Here is the input.
Amino acid sequence: MRASADETDLRLLVVGLDAGCRSILEPLFEADETPTLQRLFETGTSGALESQIPPWTASAWPSMYTGKNPGKHGVFDFLSFDGYDWDVVNSTHVRERPVWELLSEHGISSVVVNVPVTHPPTSFDGALIPGMTAPEDPTCHPEGILEDVKLACGDYHVYPQSTDASDRSIEGYEQTIDRRGKAFRYLCRRVDPGFGFLQFQQTDTVFHERPGDKEAIEAVYRAVDQQLAETIETTDPDNILVVSDHGMGKVTGTEFRVNEFFREQGLLAAKSGGEGMPTWSKAWENDLLEGEDAGQHDESALEQLMNVAATFGVTTQRVASALDTVGLKEPIGSRVPNDIIRAASEQVDFPESEVYVRSKSELGVRINLEGREPNGQVPESEYESVRAELIDQLSAVRTPDGDPVFEAVEPRETYFEGPHVDNGPDILTVPAAFDNAIVADVGIDQFGEPMESWNHKQTGVVAATGNEFDESVTIQGATIFDVAPTICTLFDVPIDEAMDGTTLPVIDGGTEASYPAYEPDPIRATDDTAVEDRLSDLGYL
Here is the structure.
């Protein structure tokens, strides 16, 4: 690592705003809440940045930092599946080269802070603190650097729940964001990088945890703007690229319970009493925060009691309804673990079902295929015909108001291409304007009010400013796959010809090259699990 210096030679700073989009930013600009971001957008050039399908954090950020679609990099969701088993994704599930490793191979150092799905970190010239899906107090690169960060900057937290502030509090968000910026600036002084990537997750989190809360949203963005201003002043980057992995907006349509639809079609079996699936109803984020290992979960007496109650028809919905009637839903719900509540609900019996949705944030349907899944129900010879029939059935589904639920229902090959396509869902379902929502629940009506009033939209945002960017160019038709090629072009590093994006028009040049096959570390289980309750609270599971 390089000696510390008062100034850095940062040629490019990439700022990641999870869920950032024009509809969120413009009111903040008008209210003068985020002057630094506003200046970047107004002095440079900007435009829409289309996400992928699915436009969800755990898959979209790897697409951005590799420049390749999930069929190539291998991450389709927060969870990966092996038969009926699951694991929380981590960096070893990403089977393509991150752009900072490509830069490192060409002699360019990087500082990367809080980018999702980067734990455990790999070796490269620079420093990295992982983001979402990492455990609290994660392994960083180089080893031991987090301890130095904490000594220099104060406590550092991946998740706001680990701060000394109350859960879902503005203070917790602000503390997390503050430490994020301080850690990045400290590492820039240590490393003196050519490339920096600083991501802020709370710009997404606040909409899941405090939907529509103007005070909280403004507080989060003010904190981000302050850290960005201090970072720009300290590091003096030559160029700045602001990017988001997807957008965010209100969900005013219908929630469609796909697994309940399949059950009514006779295609899906269900169980109650906590014996069915999904098994990820264990609080994996809480485990991660508390340092426990994945899968090490013993049933409490209360959970066992709820399991028994479920066999007699005491469902989650009935429990919630009863609590709501006596005004106790919120205080009780905040104290009873999710897996105890879910033990009282019906769950999908995946081995005995023909088709199912395993995780709603996949936006996909999986077929229980003979020879592929341990207890496959659909013969391989019928795969294409069954898939085609399912696509027709789902395409025809209408909301109670008579509108299409989906704007597209397509085979996975429409959106994915590469050696890992077979690990993705068999069918992708795209909600109409992302104003409808899908969930994996069974045992409730097929349609209902959306559980989340705010959720992801496909259109994010990009802004570019700096002496190497042509700020007079209008950015149109950009996608998250274009970010990595643009980074390569700015540093005169040949673009991997296997990348799915192209250089944004803000910079000329860019050559392609064929790189040796990437050799990532073997896939490792996420031992320090964290987030099932966390991601459930955020609406991802």
In short: The longest helix spans residues 170-191. The chain has two domains: 12-250+455-538, 252-280+340-451. The CA atoms of residues 71 and 417 lie 5 Å apart. The chain has a mean pLDDT of 88.
